[in-house]
Amino acid sequence: MNFPILSLIAFTPIAGILAVLAVPKKNEKLIRVIATAATGIALLLGIGLMLAYNYRDGAMQFVEKYTWIKTFNISYHLGVDGLSLSMVFLTVLLCFLACIASYRIEGRQKEYFVLYLLLETGMLGTFLALDLFLFYVFWEVVLVPMYFLIGIWGGPRKEYAAIKFFLYTLAGSVFMLLGFIALYFTSNPHTFDILELQKGSGGFAIGFQQIVFMALFLGFAIKVPIFPFHTWLPDAHVEAPTPISVLLAGVLLKMGGYGFFRISYPILPEAAKWFALPLAILGVVNIIYGAFVAMAQIDFKKLVAYSSVSHMGFVLLGLASMTATGMNGALFQMFNHGTITGGMFLLVGVLYDRTHTRDLKSFGGLGAQIPVYAGLLTVFTMGSLGLPGLSGFVSEFLSLLGTFPVFQVITIIAVSGIVVTAAYHLMLLQRVLLGPLNVRWKDITEINRRELVTLVPLMAITLFLGLYPISMLYLQGPSVAMLVEKVKGLLV
Amino acid sequence: MMNYPYLIPLFPLMAFAANILFGKKLGKKSALVSIAASTASAALSISAFVNFLRGSVASVSFAWLNVNGAPVMFGILVDQLSLMMLLVVSVIGTLIQVYSTGYMSDDKRFSRFFAYMSLFMFSMLSLVLSNNFMMIYIFWELVGVCSYFLISFWFEKDSAANAGKKAFITTRIGDVGLFIGLAMIFWLSGSPYFSDLPAIAQNPDRVLLTAAAILIFCGAVGKSAQFPLHVWLPDAMEGPTPVSALIHAATMVAAGVYLVARCYPLFAACPAALVVVAYIGIVTAFMAGTIALVVNDIKRILAYSTISQLGYMIAALGCGGYTAGTFHLMTHAFFKALLFLGAGSVIHGVHTQDIRQMGGIFSKMKITAATFIIASLAIAGVPPLAGFWSKDEILVSMFASGNYVIFGLAYLTSIFTAFYMFRLCFIVFFGRPRKADLHAHESPAVMTVPLMVLAFFSIFIGLVGSPLMHNWFGHFVTFGEGHHGGAPAGLIMGASVAAGVIGIAIAFALYILKWQLVPQAVRIRFTWLHTLLINKYYMDEIYLSAIIRPIALLSKYSFRFDKNLIDGVVNWTGLFSLFLSEVKNSFDKHVVDGLVNGAAKLVDLCSGHARRLQTGLIQNYMLFIIAGLVIILFVNLIR
Amino acid sequence: MIANLVKQILDLKIPEWFISLSVFYFILAATAIAALMVVTLKNVFHSAVALAVTLIGVAAVYLYLNSEFLAIMQILLYVGAILTLIIFAVMLTAKLSDRNIMQANEQKLASFLLTGALFAILAIAIVKMKIGEPAAGGTVALNELGRSFFTDYVLPFEFISLVLLAALIGAVALAFREKGDE
Amino acid sequence: MSVRELLINSVQFAPELFLVLAAFAIVLFDFLSRSKQRDLGIVSLIAFAVAGGMLWFISSHIPPQSSVYFSGMVTVDAFSTAVRFVICIVMFLAVLLSMGDRFHRDGDTAEYYALLLFMSVGLSGLSLSKNLLMIYLSLELVSLSSYILVSLTKREFFSSEASLKYFLFGALSTGIMLYGMSLVYGLTGSIDLDRTFAAVAAGGLNAGALYLAVVLVLAGLGFKIAMVPFQMWAPDVYQGAPTPVTALISVGPKVAAFAVLLRFFYKGIGDFGMNWYDLAGFLSVATMTVGNVIAVSQNNVKRMLAYSSIAQAGYILIGFAVPSALGKQSVIIYLLAYVFMNLGAFALVIPLIRAVGSEEISDLKGVAQKAPVAALALTLFLLSLAGIPPMAGFLGKFYIFSAAVQGQKLYLAVAGVLNSVIALYYYVRVIKYMYLDQPEKDLAVALHPAIVAAVIIAAAGTLSIGIYPEPFIRIVAGAVSIF
Amino acid sequence: MISITHVMLFSALIFAIGLYGALTRRNAIGILMSIELILNAANINLVAMARLWGDKSGILFAVFVIGTAAAATIVGLAILIAVYRNAKTVYADRINLLRW
């Protein structure tokens, strides 16, 4: 057994929690430093992981496996491949940046950072777990701190949003649990091991696959979120404090998509095939519907939240295509959505900190007042609307291109969604930055250095991946190819 | 000689980076950075051109993306067409940036302007050099966004911000078609490269091929402001005038024409697509030409003229006039840039855009006026200026294609062109000032020198395609259509000259001699026509009520749907609970209190009811268990 | 004539089993009626008296079932101890006004229907059990029963003593509280 | 039975014997000297600890001589030993809770602790019984002790009302059960479970009558586990009883009654020709739905926990409705988890409601900021009850759902998961008031050392079962392997 | 010879009557008495079955039932008196503060 780097990454935040707990409540500065250090170490480890990863090989790497509950053949089984590595990196990166953005959180900082770090462990564990039971445990571990983080430090309707988030996602995940259990009892020998289950994937009857797929779908769909299970999202995003919105959009939504990649598709390929068309339809509904609803928003944050719904539609579309191109696009889109929408939420937060409003109607003309902020907002907005040269374009492009041969009409409808997407994004830019200056904000201050630190890395990644996207495909391509091989795509 | 064509776009990119990052420090020097970069690009373009003539073609490629398992290599395509475009873009771009240093000198976002200009140069040059669909799409979008930034450069004006948005969204509608088209190309062939287009065109599925071609053309419709997506271009005049000159006259709008030319192997293989192209082009040309007759804003006249001329080019391509279309693209770039810059100079001098307030400024702005009139003559097709040769070429190719309706409309349009251009010239430069406090003055040298250079090109550039130079251009940029043997070339050349002369003559009669050519009665009878034209065929209004409003409403209702229906899970739950709460007021608290959504409402409602079972009366409880027992036993009994 | 008839009737030889059975069914009927009175009489005190009758009737049934031991226990423990306690409690809590107020609550009808249904189900089940004749000589000797308490049934015996002890301690704790408190 | 035999027999029951002696000792001690009550608490604490230790020692070092003792009245096997051990834990925690609450300050502690000890003997008896008579007597011992325990807070009206209801309801249920037992006896000719099993297995019994008898027996046990339709007493009694007693009766009798239920059904009746699994499934769905749905609208924390415990019993019954080893295991695993998390929750409810002076959930506003540790611990237990990993409650749910899925009872699994979503809502409601709301008044939460100890034990149990369940699973698997 | 079935039917009747009483008597002592009827019904059954099978365990069971009934009555009455002391009533439908 080699160096347990994955456990180290996943449990570094826990070490941070213990350290934070040891610090008296009053010493907020030290608490912040510890939390930042913990997330920073996790980030460094994540970068180390990226460097140590063998990009030629699409199989699992850095595998750790210890028996946990022998009775059920459950093991503590971690590993990364191209599917999870980008998600892990996204998680450690966003957690670090959002941690810096958390300095402005008001009150109860000790509790905040403890929950925050717990959240990070949960998210990392979800992406690293190779055992369904372990996966579920981490999946649920995410819910609890998230509930508190929204509920305690959220906006005016925080309680409603928090409980809604909790109930919705739990409702989905318990059905997911049933699906896992069904898989366990149907596999031979009984196992929760994802890799083992993948090997025996051909063995499940189609009817069984469909039922289990539906059960898992409920869990993942609510997380993604897929229309019509998305209504928790706008509330949660809007009420959550800025750093938590970042993680919610940046990482939590990915857990759902990742579940399709890691579990539903490789283990239940025939059901996936059978479900491709409905999924594609749901994807396009997400894209179009999300965009239309976003257009009607006058709340900055809500607009970004609904744009997430729209963006995640591309993930579904790419998944539904079951082609290498489409699935690469879907996975890539998950990463890009994390960086771009994460950045968008940070920007919303920056503005909100200064103006204490998110009402788009009350802004205007800020472009002349705070040009650096304006520039950043413009870049992220353009990334969000899928401007070529920024990463969002590439992934949307890939998933559409991958889907086109399989579902022409659906793709065409989806593509026309980019017009609406452009419309609401430009509307956003116009309402915030352009037009005559609202005199209320004539003394507004420019974005500060700390905020820049949180945003510039995201922008750099967005640009880099937009200009040189194949680098991401080097990372995820081999694993996606293996997955596609497994699901025997409708069209190669 | 150096031959690094792939460096051509990179210089402006570096200039962009320098200006956006260090714009504040650079101050006025940012203009120098940008100009130096585009000068370098121009020089490299010339060197590439020379090398190309010598037969040496440089190439470069790198893997950018994997699609369908095969890497998509990004590379450059240096051929006749792209070289022509490179030269046009880099030269005109350089001149316009020089001009801008004067025009924009007072602007507070001076360096930002040059940053955007450089970014545009980068995008446009890259677009021209692209060797595959994906790359061209990327830069296609990038020029679009540059256009957006530059149109709404003076974003404090709502109209500018709106115009930018409109431009971006309208062109994006076309891009949807382009996207689907290129996805179809991918699907049909698996290859995104232009070099494979002739092979792709062999695909037996003609319907799909035609569809793909038309969809790609949609992109051109948007970008080149063709009917019905032309509405953004006149509004785009809200941007600074050099922007209008560079982007919305000379280069970017020509990208659509370039795209069609680039994909000509595909179109050539699909006659139906060509017909669509031709008719869209001529309708655009005619319609915009007519609107230009009545517009009074100097830049808008030029904008409609641009639309009209682009329609001309498109129609030429649609009629098989590959050389004619591209040739006109080149000549038009020069004289239209000159026209815009001239107009900019006028605006700079008189601080208004309404021609009805100008007049008699010839004497005060001699260089401007002279170059402007040269350009007008060029566009009107007066020999031997540039426009004459290319327009003649187009008319010949239309006639040769045998489509006389198109030819007729094109001919009519060329009369209109001459007329409205000289209507403009006569009103602006001659006669007496219509406004008393018009303090017109000549622009500084940085502005007039580019005018003069462009005027030079406007006069002489056409010669490369003229019989005088043995139709060198036609041999250089050609799709092998040969010379139009069937057309009476001489006759058409005469007719073309006549059209220009007629147009100018009418304008002269109306605006210099003040003749009442049309009787009052007739004029009154045709007021509706005037109104129709003034309102631009009501296109904007139609869009507003047929598309924009419905979409806004749809969006609003989607949100309501989302908020009320989806969120309420099932509407009846809400109604049901409402009904119940009316029946029993005491339940209000439980119905309304802290509910998550419809399902939770239901649970809570049940809970509120069910807890009433717990009456506190022990014998009720006992009754309950007996009832339970009886039920359990009874169920078994009947089973 | 009539006297003759009377004489004849008086001379009729009634079989012993008939008398025994008649008495048995009479006891059943009387006990059932007494039980009914327990649950319906307005005066709780009267109910308690009816309960005594019922309990004695049940003891008689035990006799018929050859369980003299149990019959004795019934009389001693039930009637002697339990019922006495109940009557005490009745007197302790009785008020004069209670005589006139309703002793049954509003769920009489529902209760009647449900218990009726339950009885029907029970009766059907019992009839369906098709119980045959009891085993011959199925009586258990008294001394065997007595010995059982100290052999096979020693553990239950210990347990019931615990039960009684717990009840005693509890009852004392509950009943004696007033002294210290008030 | 010789003295020697008696002694050998008795060794296996030394813990119970010791507990009885301890009860006597406490009563006598109290009678002789009026000393501090706390000593009595510690005495009973030690008694339970010693009893547990003895049980541990005996089970690991003195193998039972035979499977049955006292003429087949009781049996000593892995199952009964495991349940007895759980009961020791329950009682130990219950004593700690009692010591932490102040209600017994005004006397009667000797009776209180003696009754606790008696009750524990009754619970042990339930888990050991192999005979209907012993089941009945043990149940009565448990019942009578708990009736009194509920009413031992003298002047509290609620407490005596709860006690009366508990008593009347319990007496009725016991009566019905007794009638059912008499029918079982009538059908099989024996009150020994082995023999009833043999009689049922031999066939020829009237299925309808047997079903009737079984359902009637279920009444008494259903009363103890608060199963629908015998759950009606629970909320009133839980609310009215002193909180430590509530904690105890929500756990102890439930564990023992489930043990009896398992033994009665698997060892006493079997499933020959009578499918009582469907009945259990139906009752399970009814129980959890009723419990969860009504709990949503509760404002009294004890009452809410009462409905919650009804719902928990519903989940456990799922394990009952599946005829598999996993089903039986899941019953015990869930019970084990339930013991720790429910007692843990009550352990914190005691000081919290004292501190805020109210049992209303909404009065717990902002407690987290005044008593962070208590709030955190309560959150842990509530989330465990809701089935969130990595707490014990999740393992229980996992087992239950596994059993349902394996047994192809999809409706049970779906009902279970839907219910656990509803349940989350009311558990989180408590958490919401504690954490999300701002405190309205200044309050000091005093944590008695006994409470702290109880919380630590419960939390350790809850977490260790959740995080590393393997040893527990192995013990439970061994315990239910007798069925 | 008496019919065991008839005895059992009689016991069922007593059981039903007891149930009815438990459900309808307002006085808690009345309820207690009704429950005694139920216990007696069970006892009759036990004894009848013991007679049927010629088995002693039924009789012994019944003895134990009588014993526990005594214990239960003691406890019940003690509780009742405690309630009476607090509420000044023994009517079960007056004692309903704990509800919902």
Q: How is this fold's topology laid out?
A:
The complex is a heteropentamer of chains A (492), B (639), C (182), D (483) and E (100).
Chain A: H1 5-22, H2 28-52, E1 61-69, E2 74-80, H3 82-101, H4 109-128, H5 132-153, H6 158-186, H7 194-199, H8 206-223, H9 232-239, H10 242-267, H11 269-274, H12 276-295, H13 300-321, H14 324-355, H15 366-369, H16 371-384, H17 391-403, H18 408-432, H19 449-467, H20 470-487
Antiparallel strand pairs in A: 1-2
Helix pairs in contact in A: 1-2, 1-4, 2-3, 2-4, 3-4, 3-10, 3-14, 3-19, 3-20, 4-5, 5-6, 5-10, 6-8, 6-9, 8-10, 9-10, 9-13, 10-13, 10-14, 12-13, 12-18, 13-14, 13-17, 13-18, 14-16, 14-17, 14-19, 14-20, 16-18, 16-19, 17-19
Chain D: H1 3-12, H2 14-32, H3 37-61, E1 68-69, E2 74-75, H4 78-100, H5 109-128, H6 132-151, H7 157-188, H8 193-202, H9 207-225, H10 233-240, H11 243-269, H12 276-296, H13 301-320, H14 325-356, H15 367-370, H16 372-386, H17 392-406, H18 410-436, H19 449-467, H20 470-480
Helix pairs in contact in D: 2-3, 2-5, 3-4, 3-5, 4-5, 4-11, 4-14, 4-19, 4-20, 5-6, 5-11, 6-7, 6-11, 7-8, 7-9, 7-10, 8-11, 9-11, 10-11, 10-13, 11-13, 11-14, 12-13, 12-18, 13-14, 13-17, 13-18, 14-16, 14-17, 14-19, 14-20, 16-18, 17-18, 17-19
Chain E: H1 4-24, H2 28-53, H3 57-87
Helix pairs in contact in E: 1-2, 2-3
- In terms of structural class, how would the helical and strand content of chain C be classed? mainly alpha
Strand content of chain E: under 5%
Low-confidence runs of chain C: none
Give the amount of beta strand of chain C, in percent.
under 5%
Number of helices of chain C: 8
Q: Which structural class do the helices and strands of chain E define?
A: mainly alpha
Sheet with most strands of chain C = none
Low-confidence stretches of chain E: none
For the termini of chain C, the CA-CA separation is: 81 Å
